[in-house]
């Protein structure tokens, strides 16, 4: 993992841009329930939050949240997020630093989370992911999912295993390739490929210089002008539909998109291990300053305890393909044969093995929502979109 330190200048640039955005109102909710600002991927079990409520023993009022860093900053730092939310999720290794440095979230007492004993060793002091949940040495966040994003490909049509990002940019897939419509993961994964293949002079794909951003975007612009990309996808459903319909045969995407696409028509759509590396990331849950002031700490710790339970880890792996953040998942699955049949167990084991392979690739780069040269990223990404 190559984690970048929180960059104040980039944060201030983003905050200034988002301050002009309008706040949105929310209907009144029961005060006894934890008001959780989170996306649907933070939930397992039932379609609603009832299984999560049953496991945690608390009421949960979930408010839908996007993955946009500027939305989080606008609501929590310059907006009314602390009045609206008791807890929230976001990207670890960046947002916990940004929000803690502005006093928007509260530091945590891990002794109040019994399942902290299950947390993966990489999050303990000295671990390679320790800084993704800490700010100034204090724990501010609890991880609940992670992954190394890769390439989904239609093995049934292509007929071979793809192990390099080269395939995504190969002319044989012109018009049937796709990438995410987000400069963060798209530029990072492209830069990883350019660096490792020797086709670009790039030092750190997670935090590029202005010239490195230019190189990466000019590479994509050239391909786009040649009609290489079918589209740049937005959202899980769009990404999955493109693959399942065979409009695209190769796509950089989240693993959940590959899973949904393969399920739709029973196609052999796979998720590869790229020899050059991948963008790695985690998502974390945090207690807001407002939640602490309103006395919602115990409710937060109850939910955090569920997120570090094998019950949650097994289900997020089986259903959405995310990496469990705790030990003991295999033992839990074996102890609950009625919940996981033989086919499901085999799929889970295969996913974990592939995740382990991806996590060990030397070229992996940690996601960075606050790159030093944020303005260059934004300006050049606009040129990619306009090409």
From TrEMBL:
<dbReference type="InterPro" id="IPR006311">
    <property type="entry name" value="TAT_signal"/>
</dbReference>
<dbReference type="Pfam" id="PF13343">
    <property type="entry name" value="SBP_bac_6"/>
</dbReference>
<keyword id="KW-0732">Signal</keyword>
<protein>
    <submittedName>
        <fullName>PotD/PotF family extracellular solute-binding protein</fullName>
    </submittedName>
</protein>
């Amino acid at each position: 993992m190559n984690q970048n330190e929180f960059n104040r200048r980039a944060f201030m640039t983003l905050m200034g841009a988002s301050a002009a955005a309008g706040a949105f109102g929310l209907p009144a909710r029961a005060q006894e329930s934890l008001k959780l600002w989170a996306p649907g991927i933070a939930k397992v079990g039932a379609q609603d939050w009832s299984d999560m409520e049953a496991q945690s023993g608390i009421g949960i009022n979930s408010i839908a949240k996007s993955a946009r860093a500027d939305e989080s900053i606008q609501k929590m730092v310059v907006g009314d997020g602390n009045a609206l939310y008791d807890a929230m999720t976001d990207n670890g290794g960046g947002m916990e630093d940004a929000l803690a440095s502005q006093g928007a979230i509260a530091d945590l007492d891990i002794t109040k989370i019994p399942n902290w004993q299950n947390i993966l060793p990489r999050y303990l002091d000295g671990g390679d992911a320790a800084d993704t949940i800490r700010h100034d040495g204090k724990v501010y966040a609890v991880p609940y999912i992670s992954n190394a994003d890769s390439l989904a490909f239609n093995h049934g049509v292509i007929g071979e295993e793809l192990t390099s990002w080269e395939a995504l940019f190969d002319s044989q897939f012109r018009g049937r390739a796709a990438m995410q419509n987000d400069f963060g993961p798209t530029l990072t994964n492209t830069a990883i490929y350019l660096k490792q293949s020797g086709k670009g002079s790039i030092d750190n794909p997670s935090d590029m210089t202005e010239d490195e951003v230019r190189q990466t975007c000019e590479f994509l612009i050239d391909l786009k002008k040649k009609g290489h990309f079918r589209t740049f996808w937005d959202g899980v459903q769009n990404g999955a539909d493109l693959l399942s319909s065979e409009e695209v045969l190769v796509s950089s995407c989240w693993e959940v998109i590959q899973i949904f696409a393969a399920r739709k028509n029973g196609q052999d759509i796979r998720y590869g291990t790229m020899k050059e590396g991948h963008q790695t990331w985690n998502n974390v849950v945090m207690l807001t300053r407002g939640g602490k002031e309103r006395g919602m700490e115990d409710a937060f710790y109850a939910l955090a305890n569920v997120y570090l339970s094998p019950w949650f880890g097994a289900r997020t792996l089986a259903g959405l393909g995310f990496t469990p953040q705790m030990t003991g998942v295999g033992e839990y699955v074996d102890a609950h044969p009625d919940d996981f049949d033989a086919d499901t167990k085999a799929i889970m084991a295969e996913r974990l093995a592939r995740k382990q392979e991806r996590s060990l690739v030397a070229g992996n780069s940690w996601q960075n929502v606050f790159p030093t040269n944020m303005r260059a990223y934004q300006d050049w990404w606009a040129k990619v979109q306009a090409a």
